[in-house]
């Protein structure tokens, strides 16, 4: 069974940091681009970052550049999202997913809604709450 499981969320004060983890099982993890997304209450899901399978190249949404760092450990079948300088507006449920489009091994140029439709095997999410 293809499965992605997020962990690492929690309640933190503004200015703090977290490292989210995405553990994969049931598929050839190192063949897939993995993305991180978040959804805050009442808002659309937002694409944050992705990491390529072919060369480890990355993409970051403008809203998170400089504060979010994505990495992957193929030996452990895990992808991580390091977040620093957390802000109250970072409060959301954070998800990881795999880009299931055939032949895709590098991050797309964007993670907009259209591209998100190609992502699958969504995890259950991990809640991040940032207090001011």
Characteristic terms for this protein:
3% helix, mainly beta, 4-stranded antiparallel sheet, 132 residues, globular
**Structure annotation, total helices:** 1
Ends apart, CA distance between termini: 40 Å
Segments where pLDDT lies below 50 for 5+ residues?
A: none
Topology, number of strands:
11
Query: What structural class should be given to the helix and strand makeup?
Result: mainly beta
Q: What's the multimeric state? A: single chain
3D architecture notes:
The chain is mainly beta. The protein is built from one helix and eleven strands. Helices cover 3% and strands 45% of the residues. Strand 4 and strand 5 form a beta hairpin. It starts with a strand and ends with a strand.
Topology:
Blueprint: E1 3-7, E2 10-13, E3 18-25, E4 34-39, E5 46-51, E6 58-60, E7 68-73, E8 78-83, E9 92-99, H1 113-116, E10 119-120, E11 126-131
Parallel strand pairs: 2-11
Antiparallel strand pairs: 1-3, 3-8, 4-5, 4-9, 5-6, 7-8, 9-10, 9-11
Summarize the structure.
The chain has 132 residues and is mainly beta. The chain is 3% helix and 45% strand.
């Amino acid at each position: 069974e293809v499965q992605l499981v997020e962990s690492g969320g929690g309640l933190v004060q503004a200015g703090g940091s977290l490292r989210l983890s995405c553990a994969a099982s049931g598929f050839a993890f190192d063949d897939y681009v993995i993305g991180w997304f978040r959804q805050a209450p009442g808002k659309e899901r937002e694409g944050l970052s992705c990491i390529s399978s072919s060369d480890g190249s990355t993409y970051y949404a403008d809203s998170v550049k400089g504060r979010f760092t994505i990495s992957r450990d193929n030996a452990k079948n895990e992808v991580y999202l390091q977040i620093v300088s957390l802000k109250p507006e970072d409060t959301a449920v954070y998800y990881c997913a795999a880009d299931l489009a055939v032949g895709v091994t590098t991050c797309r140029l964007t993670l907009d809604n259209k591209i998100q439709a190609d992502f699958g095997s969504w995890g259950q999410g991990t809640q991040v709450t940032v207090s001011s």
